[in-house]
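Ticket #4471: structure export looks truncated?
Reporter: QA, pipeline team
Priority: medium

Steps to reproduce: submit the single chain below to the structure queue and open the exported record.
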Amino acid sequence: MIKHVLTFLLFLGTLGFSAANTSSPEIILTSSEADQEDYIKRFKKIAMSEMERSGVPASIKLAQGILESDAGRSKLARSANNHFGIKCGSQWNGEEYYKEDDDYNDQGKLIKSCFRQYRNADASFVAHSEFLRDPAKSFRYGFLFRLDPTDYRAWAEGLRTSGYATNPNYPQLLISLIERYNLNQYDQSSIVIDDPEIVLTPVEELQRGILRTNDVSYFINDAPISVQEVARQVDVSVSRLLEYNENLRQENQEVPSGDRVYLQKKRRAYRGREAYHVTEEGEDLFDIAQRYGLRLDILARRNRLQETSDPATGEKVKLRGSKLREAPRLEGVIDETLPPTPTIPTDNNGQIIVDDPTDTPTTNPQPPYNPTPTTPTYPPYNPSPTPPTTTPQPVPPAVVPPEVANPNGPSNGTAEQYHAVSAGETLYAISRRYGLTVDALKQLNGLTGNNISIGQRLRVR
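Actual output as written to the record:
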């Protein structure tokens, strides 16, 4: 028992990682210089990419990878694609790999520790960035991201200060590798300079990577990306991504820039402060579900709506709790509680009638009675009342709506097919009906926004 305790204390005093989250193996490198150079060639691209995305210096990431995985030769790296010794933790839902490390049971006996297992090594490099950027750990690692990203010495010291590494020699081990292989050259080519005076896009749209809302993780990218590529980057299977996201159907489907891809099941109810969401212009129910990390089917049932519904601008959508007594009004549906809009009288040709048609029509006066037995000089009989003698104001030509093509088949014998927008429909609902993406539907019709109107003809084929 005493022997085990002393061994455990020795590990804590000399080894690299915080035992709660990462492994802490004794740092003994068996890899050759050629192995380490090959490792740098293999992973410098993902390290530079992650520096641009997350702010973790490429030099630090490469040096840590060499140090923690023995240049990819360690059993954990070869068996589980885990290059940074990250343990499972309570939030990990992926595959697991067990091996003895530094965990002991109540009797002081060494037991196997749970490590995260990744589908590929690149996913391990991404997970390392997210481990440091985790908001729940910002009190520990947040200061690192306020350091100069090209100051690898400050980052190396900061990793030890933060408790990521307890080995007092850890900073010097990293610095030695960086300077031996000139790894800081990859920091220079990865720098992205932000000038706040010329940044016109809102900050939220510039975010990318793995973020969280409603205690659910999601991935967002600043450029179009396929579902298959998202799965590769975040180490979540394509089948799970398709299960968690109602708008995704196939692995080669393109996700537009800025769209969220949820990496876990969305919640049944919103856990934040808001109990209701006031619908903004252009939003549909799917947009609201994505915004708050809610399952679309549950949100629809709670508000007595269809999943494809488009709540009217200004209507309240309930985010948690029991069902609404009355469903929100849909876009394009007239509120019967409001006073009716007066109608403009028109004739059979669609021309506006200037005078009120309920007034008694005025006819031309008849000539005076002539008692002489001559042929009467009355004007020809006109059974219809003549319009008043006042000069009517010019009226605009009538707008005749275009003929709506048959939405269930091709128009005029061609392969084109159209859909007539009805009340409450959205681009998302129409795209789902015809097996299209929203972007494809907008491209077919030359649309730049999400607003559509009742009766509008949309090409769907």
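Status: closed, not a bug. The export was complete when the record was re-opened. Leaving a note from the reviewer for reference: The radius of gyration is 35 Å.
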